[in-house]
Amino acid sequence: MEFIKPGTHFDFVGKMKIAVGISAALIIISILSVLLHGGLNFGIDFAGGTIIQVKFSKAAPADAIRSAFAGINVGDAIIQEIGENEVIVRTNQPMTKELQAKVDQAMTGQFGAGQYEIRRIEFVGPKVGRDLTQKAVLAIVFAWIGMLIYIAWRFEFRYGLGAIIALIHDTIIVIGVLSLLNKEFTLVIVAALLTVIGYSINDTIVVFDRIRENRKKDLKRTLGDIINASVNETLSRTILTAFTVILVLLSLFFLGGPVIHDFAFALLVGLVIGTYSSIFIASPIVLAFENIQISKGKRKK
Amino acid sequence: MFKSLKFRLAVTAVVSLVALYFLVPTFVAQIPSPLDRYFPKDKIHLGLDLQGGMHLILEVDADKALESLMERTAGDLKESLMENRIRFRNVEKAQGATISMELTEASGKTALEKILNEQFSDLEITSSAPREGGQLITLGVKNKRAADLKKLTVEHSVETIRNRVDQFGVAEPEIIPEGENRIMVQLPGIKDPERAKNLIGKTALLEFKLVDEENSLDEALRGNVPEGSVVAYGSREDRSSGQRGQVPYLLKNKTLLTGASLETAKVQISDRFGEPHVSMKFNSQGAADFDRITNENVRKRLAIVLDGVVHSAPVIQERISGGQAQITGNFTMDEARDLAIVLRAGALPAPVNILEERTVGPSLGSDSIRQGIMATLIGFFLVVVFMFIYYRLSGLVADSVLILNVIILLGILAGFKATLTLPGIAGIVLVIGMAVDANVLIFERIREELRLGKPPRAAIDAGYAKAFVTILDSNVTTLIAALFLFAFGTGPVKGFALTLSIGIVVSMFTAVFVTRIIFDYFIWNRSIQRISI
């Protein structure tokens, strides 16, 4: 079986301008979305606060839960249904003995004793939130730099630059999609972003490797030609691997439970964007750098 | 040597068997008796999000410990100054961990310096200003000493919390200092998180203080608290209405005895109402002190204060020499038991604040395991079927090493006693999708070589050789990302980075090394003419 017929020759480099246009638009939409939402919708890991996951033994309408929480002065509570008779309540209040007592009282009053089970409590104070934010940003930036150094060492510096720009591109767009859908930005999402970075670079390197190999074969060929040929030759692999990973991600997305749900979603988005950027963004940037260098060289002469 | 099929097969067999060996306790519930000695005992260790439990990050308020040290020191300093006949006014603890004082004679400062050198070597003069022939002086703790004290406070807190948790009875608790002044506490399988938090977070500073009966409590409540006394409250439950009210007390400032003088504490049931109370036994020094205090203060009231709350203030009827005392109050059995534990384990040297709490109930944990296993199986099934459809028999080769990959991955987790979390399971699922990448790369190369008209043997050789560099480069970069995730991530996220990293490294072994054995076997020994790819 073959998805991509051998000898396929699609002019990726020729479509570079269109791709750059699309990417620029996506990045602008992403940044606008984040700005218009007044920043990211940070989860308690970063913003601080408390979430309480409650499972009810019978149907519990969100309105009833909301009024129960309003009754105990936790009016800022956000109620999210995550499955059958199960909700996550989020508030900015810290988890204290008083809050716990009030929640128990309100739930018992509204639904009766023994009709609910508190299955998860997470509380993050503002201090830890700040620490975690700092760590998350550092992790992502260091990952970018780590990639840049490794690729610059294994290939050439401009390949590293091409790869890094593609990675930053991926990260911004995934964050933008999450922001557009108003998804919560949590620690798990940061893990997803780093995984996307790892995956996307993986894809990019496969193409770079082929470029390096093809250059050695024929020194007279132009870089544009070589890039086109290399992307085409690796296209079958790129799509196959993306497909197997999408298979497992769909499995995680539908079966992994509420905690994994958003994680799998972010990975799915990142996988699509990462695959696209490896084909359309990373290599053309390398070419663009080469063109800039050539024109600079000409001017000097 | 690496050419030899038998040798490579042996390596694979050994690796697989070792992995399986470590997995035996995880998958075999009860190993029959004579055999169990030969197998490891530990199952794969599950994270709190899978087995249920409580994770806390506590912050030790070490500054508070310094401040209370300064409060005590101020009293001692006052006595020293009097002994040495240095004239002073107002020696008191000021803002933060400092003592402010006023010396009324010009010679006072030199004399003070001498005392500091001899008796209070931890202190230094941080500022002094002349005033009315004397000086206004501020004392602080020397920087290095303050840092030492804070470190000691954190260490002592860790020790105390460990004692309390041990006595409370939690299997495999983890209590680890983190950073400068934080403590991470993990309590797997805890049933009543609220109670555990109380037990860990309570300062449990027990103090015995005399009730000030010479001055008027009403006057003090109006704001005129006499020097050397302080207003404290106790709670009282009205037996008829059941309502809790606050009762004010006027206490002498001086602490006569603290919980540090206790030898032990235990719960007893009083005969009259069947109510539990906590009975305490002092150590020999404490008993002697208690004997002296009760002897000197017969007919006066002695307040028992726990964390600033007056529990009771009985009248001392007579000298008490046995070294026994008790705390009564409206305790439930659990409350009394927990109080006895914290008294036995000792007071925390400083208050602790909960910075982060993550509690997962056992039912959610088992749900997560079920969902995780389901997602893994379905993801695995989809990939296996797809690989077979796309690559035929070669796909089956990739599928078989995929199983091996997961087994080795789990074996490594069990062998190194690493923790499997829910994101960790997601990592395994992702590995299943990503590990086949190595085989995809190889197979695509082999197909290319075959298209060029090479015979199977040459195509396989070239395919593996050319794909290997790519596989290495692409996996190293994925590892770099996972490494940073591991270094900066916390808790469950670390578990994801771990399984992903292990899985990728293992895939280099299974997808490259092991599949090659299978191909070589068929090419060399069966000399097949056509590859099903």
Describe it for me?
The complex is a heterodimer of chains A (301) and B (533). Chain A folds into 2 domains: 16-42 and 128-300, Multidrug efflux transporter AcrB transmembrane fold (Up-down Bundle), CATH 1.20.1640; 49-123, Alpha-Beta Plaits (2-Layer Sandwich), CATH 3.30.70.3400. Helix content of chain A is 69%, strand content 10%. Chain A contains 9 helices and 4 strands. Chain A has helices spanning 16-36, 44-47, 62-70, 97-111, 126-154, 157-180, 187-217, 223-255, 258-300; strands at 49-56, 78-83, 86-91, 116-124. A 4-stranded antiparallel sheet of chain A has the order 2-3-1-4. In chain A, a hairpin with a 2-residue loop joins strand 2 (78-83) and strand 3 (86-91). The radius of gyration of chain A is 24 Å and the shape is elongated. The relative contact order of chain A is 0.14. The mean pLDDT of chain A is 88. Chain B is of the alpha+beta class. Chain B folds into 3 domains: 5-52 and 361-525, Multidrug efflux transporter AcrB transmembrane domain (Multidrug efflux transporter AcrB transmembrane fold, Up-down Bundle); 63-146, 2-Layer Sandwich (Gyrase A, domain 2), CATH 3.30.1360; 202-358, Gyrase A, domain 2 (2-Layer Sandwich), CATH 3.30.1360. In chain B, the strands form 5 sheets. Chain B has a 6-stranded mixed sheet with strand order 11-10-16-15-9-12. The radius of gyration of chain B is 35 Å and the shape is elongated. The interface between A and B is large, with 72 and 77 residues.
Please give the CATH class of the largest domain in chain A.
Mainly Alpha
Order of adjacent strands in the largest pleated sheet of chain A: 2-3-1-4
Nearest-integer average pLDDT of chain B: 87
Roughly how much helix do the residues of chain B carry, as a percent range?
Answer: 40-55%
